[in-house]
Every structure is written in structure tokens, then in C-alpha cells.
Amino acid sequence: MQLLQDERKYLMAKMFRHLDGIATGCTIKALMEQKVINFIEDNQQFTLSEILHKFGGNAGYLNVGLRILENQGWLETKLDIGEKVYQLTSTGTIALELAYCYQAPVDFIPVMIRIHNWIIGKDVTLSDQDVSILKNLIEQSRRKWDLPNVDEGDYSQVYSQIIYHLDGLLVAPIMVSLAMKNVWNNFKQETQQFSSKLDDNVKYWDIFFEILALQNWMIKESEYWRLTPQGLFAVSKAYAYGVTVSYLPLFAQLKELLFGDADILSRKNLDGHETHVDRMMNIWASSRSHKTYSEQVKKIIVEIFNKPLAEQPLGIAEMGCGDGTLLKDIYEVIKEKTIRGKVLAEYPLIIVGADYNQVSLETTRQTLENAEIPNYVVLFGNINDPDKLAKQLWHKHDIRLQDLLSIRAFIDHNRHYQEPKSSSMSCSIKSTGTFACQGKMIPNHQLIQNLIEHLKSWRFYVEKFGLLILELNIIPPKLVAKSL
Q1: Is residue 283, in this structure, part of any structural domain at all?
Q2: Sheet holding 224-227, edge to edge
Q3: Are residues 84 and 145 in the same domain?
Q4: Alpha helices in 227-313, H assignment, sequence order
């Protein structure tokens, strides 16, 4: 059965509300444990300076945490003599009274990480206690987390928000784990039925599927589980959960980030891998999430590579190449749909993938190799240092960066912040964003000046063929809250 557009829109909204639960729930719990929630309830109106004076903490990340509550409509802000003053809203008053509801699901995050690793086949074990707690949380979800069923304005709105949040702390990780395990490939296409006997290596299917059944996405029929039409749509979009879920290791340490060591984002384990993010999951989700936008990129690419050959770049250079999917897709669309594609033997297309992360480099290399793409280069690159990248390309590969079309997807916002070299006070561009680096607040005018200088550092290398960027945008908290 094909879902109507309104039904698909509702399901996507539901999934993003689930994701709200991860950020909001972990923030609420961290603030609650430091007694900041009590302080907000007692004072109703406060400033970040007052919180820092009373509780300490990392100003930049606390500012982001308060922004999360503002996005939910639970706080409002106004400027008073240059400082932002927070005001607890009527819905915020109700929500903070229920802050305790987030405790158990957020405490369970480390186990959800183990469950994910176990589902995808890593050498970890689940204890009977882990499974027992999960079953208990599922039962709480079945009971709508024991929140009253009321139809009274603010109360109804907040209870609905919190139910989405708490459900999301269970649904989002499970959806990602099952998708990465390719579980949905075991469903019969005609009936959307799945037999728990299909995979003897994975236990507890009934428990995991019950989480989705409570969302009306699955139904148990005898020994089979069946996806509902809504569930079929949801699992097709499971990747949308992935980027947020990949940061569960960070969310599990959020109290430390807000009030302790601000450098936890730069920690590495003994293997040299980041400890705040599951990078493989992040790459898996990012490459799939970006496909919608990459269709627009392909249209531009076709236009560029249908120009006279003398006016075309020698190839493509992607900074922040992820798993190489975008580069592969671009190569294929050039090969199949452009003038350049017809003469690749005479005019080879150079493909360059650069990334700061070793896992990305290895994955990209494998992607391009599997696609049998010739003339590719994969190398370390820092988006803040285009000169070094250009030198590496020239000295090691005889490639001029300026002869390539530079592209990047959702990477500029994630660059390491550098203090602006020029005065930023005269910058006329305004932002409603909340920015931080290593625990410190970044004033918006400085961030804008940093962005200007960052783009200028690339100017020499993109003047000839341009710079194609896909990037996120910020919307004001009031608009976010209004849209929930």
C-alpha cells in the first residue's frame, strides 16, 4: 500500500522528534544531575553567567545545551544590556517537572551502544540484566511512559513531546542497528514478513521488533513479523537516525562535556579512533542522508561537464570525502550523461578524495576501487589548510588543485575553529546560531569573520572552476519550537 504524502510527512516528523529526544534527554539529565534544573525552576528567569557562577561548567557547551531547551519551546530569551536573559515558559515549567522521566532511558545509552555492536556482529556480550532493563523500558513505552492522557493545551503538548523523546531513545538506535545489519533484506518483498528463524546468530528479535511494533511499524503474526506500510517507509529512511545516533558515545558523556573536561571531543582510544563518535556509523548514515541533496549536485555537474572540453576542469576534488559515495556517483553521472564521459580515454577524469579521518580514507579508497574508477587519489587533507593539500597533490601526484572542481558536502561547519586574523566587529552579516569550540563560546560576529577568512583561504584554488558546497542552515529557536 502506497502512503499518502501527508502520511510520509507525518512519519518523517515523528522520526525527527525521536532524534530530539536524544539531544534533549541527555541535556536534561546532565543539567538535572548538576541541580541546574532545580535552579531554573526556582528562578524562572536567569542568565548563563549566573549558572556559571553557581555551578561552573564550560560556557560554550552550556550555551548550546540551553539552546536545545529553547528549541523545544521550554525557554525563551531576550537581550538585557548585551547579555541573553532566559525565561522559563509555561510549557517549560511542565517539562522540567517531568525531567526525571529522562533518567532511565538516558542511563541506558551505554547498553544501547553495546546492543548495536552486538547486532552488527562485534565481539561483545549482553547480560541478562541488560535485556531485563530493556524489556522494562519497552513496557514503559507501551504505557506511554506513565504520563497522563490529557487534552489540556500545554499539558497535552508537553506530554506528547516527551513521549516522542523517550521513545526515540529506544527506537533510533535500534533502527540504525537493524539497518546496518541489513536485517530488512531478510523480509520477503511480497509480504514484508520476517521469520525469526532466518538468522540463528542473532537472538532477541522479538524484543527489538517489539520496540518498532509500539510505533505501529511492525505486527507479529504467528512466528512471523510483518512490516506495516508505515514501517516499510520508516525502515527505508532508517539512515535519517544514523548521524545523531553515531554520537551516542558523546551523549553518554554529556555531563562531562558541559561541566568537566571540554577536550573530550579530541580524545582517541588505543587504536587511534575517536571516542566521542562511531565514525563508521556516521559515514554510513551521512552518505545515505546526502543522496537527496546529491541529486541537485548531479544536475550542476552535468551542466559543467557538458561545456566545451577546453572549459572543463580536469576532475573533481572532494574535501571530506566520507565513504566516497558522492565521488563515485559524480564519476558515474559524468561518464553516462555528459560530453566528457564519451571521451574519457582522451580526457581522463581525475578523482581526488581528501579527508581528515583515517576511517573515511580507507572506506573511500575501497569504494572507488570497487567501482573500478581509474585515475583516483585518496589522501589526508585538512579543510583549514588548502595550501598543504595543494602542495601534496602537486609534489606527489602532479595534480594542481586549482585545475579541479572543488566540492564538499556538510563539512565546512565541522572545521576546527580558528581565531579570526582581522577585526570582526564591522561584519554586517548576522547569525542566530550558537557556536562553541573546546568549551568556549564563539561570538557570532567572530564566527562569521572566521567563515569569511576560511573561504578566502580557498579562493586561489577555486577561482578557475568554482566551489560547490552543500551545507546546513540555522533557523531561529522560536521557529524551531513553533514547528514542533
Answers
A1: no
A2: 193-195, 224-227, 218-221
A3: yes
A4: 229-236, 242-245, 248-251, 254-259, 279-289, 291-304
Here the cell at position 379 is 589522501
Q: Based on the domain organization, do 457 and 362 belong to the same domain?
A: yes
pLDDT at 191: 63
User: Nearest Cα to 278, choosing from 242, 254, 253?
Assistant: 242
C-alpha span between 318 and 378 (Å, rounded): 10
Same domain for 200 and 320: no
CATH number at 364 reads 3.40.50
Separation of alpha carbons 428 and 449, rounded Å: 10
At position 325, the amino acid (one-letter code) is T
φ, ψ dihedrals at 319, nearest 5°: -90, 125
Q: Count the domains in the chain.
A: 2
Res 103: pLDDT: 98
Question: What one-character-per-residue DSSP string does 34-93 give?
Answer: TTHHHHHHHHSEEEHHHHHHHH---HHHHHHHHHHHHHTTSEEEEEETTEEEEEE-HHHH
Residue 200 has what pLDDT? 56
**If the chain, 484 residues long, is cut into consecutive pieces of 10 residues, what is the mean pLDDT of each piece?**
91 98 99 98 97 98 98 94 92 98 98 95 92 98 94 92 99 97 78 62 82 96 87 96 98 97 89 90 90 86 98 98 94 98 97 94 97 97 97 98 96 91 72 91 91 96 96 91 91
* Residues 237 and 300 placed together within one structural domain of the fold: no
* Domain carrying residue 343: 293-482
How far is it, in rounded angstroms, from Cα 229 to Cα 191?
11
